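EI: anyone free to look at a 486-residue chain?
SC: sure, send it
EI:
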Amino acid sequence: MQGIITDDKPRSVETQISAINEALAKKIGPQKFRIWFSNSTSLTLTGGYLKIGVPNLFIASWIESHFANEISQAVREVTGDARKIAFTIDPELSGNQRRTQLDSHARHVSKFDSLKSKVEKAAPTGKKLRLNLDTFIVGHSNELAFNAAKAIVNEQKSPFNPLFVHGGYGVGKTHLLQGICNAVSKKRPQTRWLYLSAEDFVNQFVLALKTKKLERFRQKMRQTDLLTIDDIHFLASKPSTQEEFLHTFNTINLAGKQVVLASDAHPKMIGQLSEKLVNRFISGMVVKINSPDFQTRCEICRQYAATMMEANFGAADKRPAQKQFPENVIRYVAENLRSNVRELEGAMMKLVAYSALQSEKINLPMAQEVLAEHLARTDPIVHISDIESAVTAYFGLTPANIHSSKKDRTIALARHFSMYLTRKHTKMSSSEVGRFMGNKNHATVLLACRRIEGLINKNAELHWLSPAGNKIAKAKAVLAELEASI
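SC: here you go
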């Protein structure tokens, strides 16, 4: 990154700009820094501003949307205060051939980002959704859920109601729900269907109450042949909305219509959910989608690679060698990323984007270099499910106990240890941990972690009730046994 230096204290400003360059390169990595900043933008420190010269508005928008936080942090570390970031068009950069190429490449990567854009959470009846069952990769981990979805599509009256699909982040729940809606719409065009998230259900319900249009809201939700709701666990700790949804479900069910739901957890493991709703949910078919196995991950990578390469190079491209995604790269990605589909997609996107930006053929050595940081960041050695299993087994509880709102000594102690170990051994935020463990807020997680830290520092004596009777142990001993079993 070249600096445009003012005459006032040139040495000081030059030193600061150099330091900002170094700090920014460390934050975003040398590859991104070389591609987007090195010798291709201009930097000016003046007054309370950091001005970044760019060749055009598109590049300014791209850098701002992808690196604004890192730039601000680098400036704050070097200058000691927060500077406002401003972009200016630099005519000298506009004619730079490298920037012209980068502009083109950025537009390509922008296409890739659109492939992973956030799915629209609410769609009116008849509006086609983005994901289809035809593109859903079936493997051992999701075969039962997929067959249940096909049964709903093929049967005029489903053999089970509701279909409740649960599983971790990024395993295909949303894909399955949207695929059901699209397939039913295609097979039976007259079907009235609705797809939305539980958050949208809550927001629309609250708005209906405020605007006194509750009857209109109920007609919209209940007069459907197929109601699919994503992230149903969002209803936890919202008793009035739970009551409304219960009546909505009962109305649709009594009419012989279909409800399909998706959640991060089994109905019994969703904390602060009414017993009536839990009973309704488990009265149908509850099926779990696990993390994809190796062969399924390979097939997901192949499909996603084909989609991205087509978006990048087009069907008429004359460079088949560059369009081809080597099988050993597919297997390398699938072997090293095991948790969910979105991690796989992120890795594949990074490879294709790097190939486009650097005009470099995709191969295994390049993939190993480019994905080194990505693999270290995304695939933890310990997963929250491992921690939860170890803690519940040790204290003689079930995951449902930890996810509940119960606060007796044993459950509270186990819940606090689960939160503490998850924050210690994974990269999950406090909010993510709280959401997983029964929709607790992040403050609850922070307090739990502080409590366990205090007990460990004092090596306090812990008391709890197990199925075998009363138990007593030192805090450090409990921690050591739990960590050994994870």
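EI: The longest helix spans residues 57-79.
SC: 👍
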